[in-house]
TrEMBL record, chain B:
The lineage of its organism: Eukaryota, Metazoa, Ecdysozoa, Arthropoda, Crustacea. It comes from Daphnia pulex. SUPFAM superfamilies: tRNA-guanine transglycosylase. This is tRNA-guanine(15) transglycosylase-like domain-containing protein. Pfam families: TGT. Coiled coil: none annotated.
């Protein structure tokens, strides 16, 4: 059994739900989980500098292998000593495999046993991304956690293709593990597939758990599937995956989704949503989103959130942001800072409440604030019910005592 | 507001200070003074936090009315002036200028006459200094008649604005500072200062940043800081010359020699910087140069990342601000 450059210590386990608060150490920095990872696609979080992220106590960022592998490319990154040095970020990085972007961004991506065949968007030449090549690029980038190249199938697809992809993902994991040249510095995570089929998903998890890895990702679930199937697959996956290794649910970032999936036992999340919506002038608040371009904010002299302590809210008003949103790039910086602060604060609240044993009450308060008319999404209600929380009859299922760990 | 000149050099360059602003009485601004250009009341690409990383201390900001006129109604409702509205309170002061009587804004053409300017704009925005609106709609190729008319109109507007201001809050300053507008290249900057101009606008660093370029001209008198000696790619001088349109009267023979050698900037979009591990400018102490190399900034500009303009702007302003400090020192030392 290899010694992985990752330790994972569970600090507190919620007695009602499957949520837990843990402490993960990685080569560059510690990470408190559950954690939300902002996405810095091309080696920078759009419009903000690393110091601002440190001030917000962001501990880990995501970078995209597909983009970075093209520009600036693995050779330059390797010569600079990796992406950390290149972008001036001294805390943790996680890179995805490049597979997802390839399939979603490129028109003619063809998947074979060898790898993903596609036409380069830059010069039209035929390229092939193999598990070996993906790992080679990720080794050059140097992130603390790297992802296997998986056979990504849209969750709206059904039939034999899903089973084929599931088995291939396992075979590609083995190729990735073999090609990985820096296991002492970078943790390779496999990705559980199987689409929306419980049998296939179970099989996938079992196969991946046979390999010696430091953590697991749950994939194939942030596409067009209905939320009802989404949560069931998450719940199934977390039931199968070990509790003493981090579980990374890919592509999830809406506040409600984060809260529910923490209750379902996930530890790590990433999503472009908060940073992308900031660029469109939308700020995240406890009740949803504020579209600051709307004229109704023209004379609203409050900060985005009166209780938020980020640098944007301490100094700028909604009215001023209204004048510059999507007009001046400063607006992007200001709203992005706030949205990242919002996401990180949400996760901090989740962790603190799990530690104190008050996570159930936190969930009630959160849902009441987000859905003041009590029109809770059906899927969320169903999902919480299986982890012993009934949003409509509070106190009825919440039988367990709060006990300190 | 008071303006006092306390040193005049042989060349007629002057050192002075602007003090006693009603809103921030303890602030002192040394001239020659650089106005930081803003759009929508913020320095382009730089929020307050990022601006603090360029250099701390007081800034005077130039706020072109054309980027604000759509919002004066809201600022008026705010009641505390444009500086606070834009999150710039305490250390920053605003100054307005306009260079046309009918500015083009995002919402289309707007007609501004002195009455409107004073009442709706100035009183709503509450700048610490403002410039009377001018008819600045002339270029090198304008006819003499047009130029004469623009001067007449400008003088008339200035008179009207001054009257309105006096009516609202008393007298104008006696000892008047001289301001010059328009983006100014470093050579022009030196010429203007030596003619006795006190206030100059900082659009140039921004324009350079907008085309993805970092300023690299020597900005101090230190003997070690030799002129740029690396082989730079041939800079398209016309882009720089185009901003000199307002300098017709000040052009002189000396500029020819410099025009050929003059290289103010490097364009980070150029592929030659792909693997260049040097900072934007060797020896520069700004955030961008201390932390990053040309290859990273090149990557950001090549991929269109917003952090590119941010880093370049931080460098350009830092560099330009330092050149003003050097100029002030040079006048003091009579060089």
């Amino acid at each position: 059994m290899t010694r992985h450059p990752l330790t994972f210590q569970v600090l507190a386990q919620c007695k009602t739900t499957k949520a837990k608060c843990s402490r993960m150490t990685l080569p560059h920095h510690v990470v408190e989980t559950p954690v939300f990872m902002p996405v810095g696609t091309q080696g920078s979080l759009k419009g903000i500098v690393p110091e601002q992220l440190e001030q917000l106590n962001c501990q880990i960022l995501l970078g995209n292998t597909y983009h970075l592998g093209n520009r600036p490319g693995p050779d330059l990154l390797e010569s600079c000593g990796g992406l950390h040095n290149f972008m001036g970020w001294s805390r943790n990085l996680l890179t995805d495999s490049g597979g997802f972007q390839m399939v979603s961004l490129l028109e003619l991506a063809e998947i074979t046993e060898e790898g993903v065949k596609f036409k380069s968007p830059y010069d039209g030449s035929e390229c092939l991304l193999t598990p070996e090549r993906s790992i080679e690029i990720q080794n050059a980038i140097g992130a603390d956690i790297i992802m296997q190249l998986d056979d990504v199938v849209s969750s709206t697809v059904s039939g034999p293709r899903v089973e084929e992809a599931m088995h291939r993902t396992t075979r590609w994991l083995d190729r990735c593990l073999k090609a990985h040249k820096r296991p002492e510095a970078q943790n390779l995570f496999p990705i559980v597939q199987g689409g929306l089929d419980p049998k296939l998903r179970t099989e996938s998890a079992k196969q991946l758990m046979d390999r010696d890895v430091a953590g697991f990702a749950i994939g194939g679930l942030s596409g067009g599937e209905g939320k009802d199937q989404f949560w069931r697959m998450v719940h199934l996956s977390t039931d199968l995956l070990p509790n003493d290794k981090p579980r990374y649910l890919m592509g999830v970032g809406f506040a409600t989704d984060l809260v529910v999936c923490c209750a379902l036992g996930c530890d790590m999340f990433d999503c472009v949503f908060p940073t992308r919506t900031a660029r469109f002038g939308c700020a995240l608040v406890e009740t949803g989103q504020l579209n600051l371009k709307l004229k109704s904010f023209a004379q609203d002299f409050r900060p985005i959130d009166e209780n938020c302590e980020c640098s944007t809210c301490r100094r700028y008003t909604r009215a001023y942001l209204h004048t510059i949103a999507t007009v001046e790039t400063v607006a992007c910086n200001l709203i992005t800072v706030h949205n990242v602060a919002y996401q990180l604060k949400l996760m901090r609240n989740i962790r603190e409440n799990i530690l104190k044993g008050t996570f159930v009450d936190f969930i009630f308060n959160f849902m009441d604030t987000m859905y003041p008319k009590k029109d809770f999404p059906v899927w969320a209600t169903d999902a919480l019910r299986v982890v012993n929380i009934d949003l409509y009859e509070r106190g009825s299922m919440h039988k367990h005592q709060q006990v300190d760990c | 507001m008071k303006f006092a000149v306390y040193l005049v050099a042989e060349s007629s360059a002057r050192l002075g200070s602007l003090t006693e602003f009603a809103r921030i009485p303890e602030a002192v601004f040394e001239t020659p003074l650089l106005l930081l250009h803003t759009r929508g009341a913020s320095v382009p690409h730089l929020s307050y936090d990022l601006l603090q990383m360029v250099s701390t201390g007081h800034y005077m900001l130039q706020m072109p009315l054309v980027t604000l006129v759509d919002h004066t109604k809201n600022v008026k409702a705010f009641g505390k002036g444009i500086a606070e509205f834009a999150g710039l309170k305490i250390v920053d002061i605003g100054y307005h200028e306009k260079n046309s009587i009918s500015p083009w804004t995002r919402g289309g053409r707007k007609l501004i006459d002195p009455q409107t300017y004073n009442i709706s704009c100035i009183e709503a925005l509450k700048p610490d200094m403002f410039q009377a609106i001018v008819d600045g709609d002339t270029t090198q190729s304008s006819s003499a008649k047009r130029v004469r008319k623009s001067v007449d109109v400008t003088v008339k507007f200035a008179g009207i604005c001054a009257d309105l201001k006096e009516k609202s809050d008393g007298s104008l300053s006696e000892n008047l500072p001289r301001a010059f507008h328009g983006p100014i290249t470093p050579i022009v900057l030196l010429k203007l200062v030596s003619k006795g101009i006190d206030i100059l606008d900082g659009t140039f660093p921004w324009l350079v940043a907008e085309r993805g370029s970092a300023l690299v001209f020597p900005n101090s008198l230190s003997k070690e800081n030799a002129p740029v000696t690396e082989t730079l790619p041939s800079v398209k001088a016309p882009a720089v010359v185009a901003t000199d349109q307002k300098v017709t009267k000040l052009a002189d023979d000396n500029s020819n020699k410099e025009a050929v050698d003059r290289v103010y900037e490097i364009n980070l979009k150029d592929k030659i910087y792909f693997s260049d591990t040097r900072p934007l400018l060797e020896g520069c102490s700004c955030y961008s140069c201390r932390k990053y190399s040309r290859n990273y900034v090149h990557h950001l500009t090549a991929t269109g990342e917003l952090q590119g303009p941010i880093l370049i702007m931080m460098h350009n302003f830092h560099h330009y601000i330092n050149s003003f400090k050097s100029i002030q020192q040079a006048i003091k030392d009579n060089e």
